[in-house]
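BUG-576 | component: ligand-complex export | severity: low

The export step for calcium ion jobs runs without errors, but we want the raw record kept on the ticket for reference. Input record follows.
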Amino acid sequence: MTVPSPSRTKTFELSSAHDWWRQASVYQIYPRSFYDTNGDGLGDLPGITAKVPYLKNLGIDAVWLSPFYPSALADGGYDVDDYRNVDPRLGTLADFDAMTAALHDAGIKLIVDIVPNHSSDRHEWFREALASPAGSPARDRYIFRDGLGQDGNEPPSDWQSIFGGSAWERITEPDGTPGQWYLHLFAKEQPDFNWDNEEVRKDFLTTLRFWADRGVDGFRVDVAHGLTKHLPETLPPEIEMPGMASEHGQHLFWDRDEVHDIYAQWRQVFNEYDPPRMAVAEAWVHPSRRARYASSEGLGQAFNFDLLTADFNAAEFRSSITKNLAESNATGASSTWVFSNHDVVRHSTRYGLLQEPESSQIPVAETGAPMAGGARDGKAWLLAGAPEHQLDRDLGLARAKAATLLMLALPGSAYLYQGEELGLHEAAEIPDAQRQDPAFFRNPGVDIGRDGCRVPLPWNAEDSAFGFSTTDPHLPQPQWFTKVAAESQEADQQSTLNLYRKALSRRRMLQGPEELRWIEEENPQVLHFARPGGWHSITNFGDTPAPLPLGLALLSSGPLAGDGTLPPATTVWMTC
Ligand code: NOJ
Ligand code: CA
């Protein structure tokens, strides 16, 4: 079966300046854990500039930079104090410009994270809201409500925040009395903006232009489905509300149709630039509703997390790929693929966990939110207490490499997360006292949090902090980093790092129109597809060798047997 090719692919040009993002390989940098240049244990922007040669050598097309704005780090920087500045611990605006220039000189685009659903509680607008009376214009930029009960000392509703605990926090009024409550769908340090407020809307347009003027090529939009809210006078109890990914757009705050008016406005701003700025939505919505985020009148692209939440399973992979390619054909956007990011257990570890969590042990959040999704919750919790015999690291890594090689052969954008090119596993052994994630603190004993995938990268095996910093890193690194440090992988042609380099460079050479044709295999554990130009990708998901067609092997995720078979948990690229 061939996924129908829309007319746009007929005019495909690899160098199209406007469409650079359609099949880009995008590398996510979590800046505080990438590389530290001033010895404070925190990665910084000059650290990214210093590593541009590494990024160029890796062969990526773009960097997606997680928040680098001033922040108290209540949520890893997703609590922004000032949207148009750089955290002084990470550098200055001049450092940002130098980093952008260095990336551009190396032919690498830059996508920055924009966090429009909430600011931090240290944002000047929130401080002004606290200092102003109830009903004031300053309070109207956020979502304040009187409490219930006699003294207003009960929250306006029983809604739970994504990180656990109430989604409402009570403030102290300027005169010292207990006062109103504000809504925070995430941590209490992340008050939700009121997107019915014109000032909020205008200010984000200013922010988008601020970064676009500085040369930023695109934006990753955090919680893109959460901005517009419709909160009636009497708020319904949580139990009466549909899940986050409701099919009908009737939720009071997730995925409401009005949110697209905002993105239509943003699109006008993006199109003021040449080439137009791109955007990709983080929208955990029902698949049938993803299209609007990805429309060319809106953000233009949306993440699908289907492969990220799938098991290493041929049927699941095939159905996700088929559905998503059909979806992108319908919207005109290109597909997005991702296995790992800063919110989930690294895929090499997920695929190596031999036991599924028992459902009774794992509370499944109603919202189905990313942080509460199957990819982290259950598996991270299991990992936290998992004896080593429940984790087969080698199998996990072999599967992860096979999955990644398959992904890099797919039409659309591939999003990679720092450290996966080193084959890093989740760092499970972080003492509680050193954990940082609010998901851990707000769910004692239930959610281990996301710190395990945010541990600073190992650059070499000899120096302090594995070459990341001259001092203790802000999150502790495990001893096994010695074996996976980037420099130690340089010389080894079979290393994960060199596999990523070879794959990314071949992907560039082989890339053609956004088309894929499935080749039927007798063995249901084998997925085989072809791209235009005779580029075949074949993956063995099973645990016994599978016969290979005749052809020339270009690259494989693990050693080939040389007997015409494809070993288990292996992908090969061939020309047939
Ligand atoms: C999604 C981000 O990826 C995550 O890290 C963050 O905690 C939430 N949005 C809230 O901003
Ligand atoms: Ca630093």
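Assignee comment: Attached the raw record above. The radius of gyration is 23 Å.
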